[in-house]
Amino acid sequence: MGVEERYKKVAAEVAEVCRAAGRDPREVRVVAVSKTVGPEAVGEALVAGAHDFGENRPEGLVQKAAVYPQATWHFIGNIQSRRIPDIVGSAALIHSLFEERHARKIDEAARAAGKIQDVLLEVNVSGEASKSGRTPADVRELLEVCTALPNVRVRGLMTMAPRGDAATARETFEGLARLRDELRAGLDAEQAAAFDGLSMGMSEDWREAVAAGATIVRIGRAVFDDAFEK
Predict the structure, then answer these.
(1) Which Pfam families would you find in this protein's record (predicted)?
(2) Span 201-228, pLDDT tens digits
């Protein structure tokens, strides 16, 4: 099965799981995580109907966005200060913001680029030491900083769940959804309208994420790796 077939299969499964959960499939965006493949595979996914792609390295983001400017590009990796102008230049949405200093540099780069940069705040809901992100208790502080920056727009939250346990993943995702709703209640009407995103769920656990309210699922191996079976 090639990339086209796998993407179509994933998209159909996401729609099916949405309907089973009583949700409109249009509420959930599938980001095809293309970090392990070259531009050719991205082209195959585009033919299959993919619109959104995720990269975790600035060089991959810049290269592939230049080849396929018609796609919507997401930055999902670790943010390096010196590469923020490159990220802002190519990414429609940055998923992995959790440091105030990066928020301020994103604001500067977005102002220089003449754009409003959409971001998600990364939250370490599970508390795993191996995962980055703000704790649920202190993400509000970063949200307050970001809402005061004129060229940054916070679109919601992102998290990763512990691997290997569907029940724990579901609990993690439900925790992020509750946190999003709590934070949203403290925003003004315009900010609250924008603050609706939940980026959560990957190839192994996106089903649990959709059931918990994900608006974005980040699926790489199930689309691009022919060795992945689920």
Answers:
(1) Ala_racemase_N
(2) 999 999 999 999 999 999 999 999 875 6
DSSP 176-222: HHHHHHHHHTTS-HHHHHH--EEE---TTTHHHHHHHT-SEEEE-HH
Whether the model clears a pTM of 0.85, i.e. scores above it, the answer is yes
The per-residue pLDDT for 128 is: 87
In sequence order, what are the residues at sequence separation of 6 or more whose Cβ sits closer than 8 angstroms to the Cβ of residue 41? 3, 34, 224
Res 6: pLDDT: 96
Instruction: Give which of 227, 199, 213, 226 is closest to 30, Cα–Cα.
Output: 199
- Domain presence at residue 229: no
Q: Is 51 part of any domain? A: yes
Residues spanned by the domain of 69? 3-224
86 within some domain: yes
Two tokens, residue 165:
């346990």
Pairing mode, strands 152-158 and 117-122: parallel
Structure tokens at 114: 């003449």
CATH assignment of the domain containing 91: 3.20.20.10
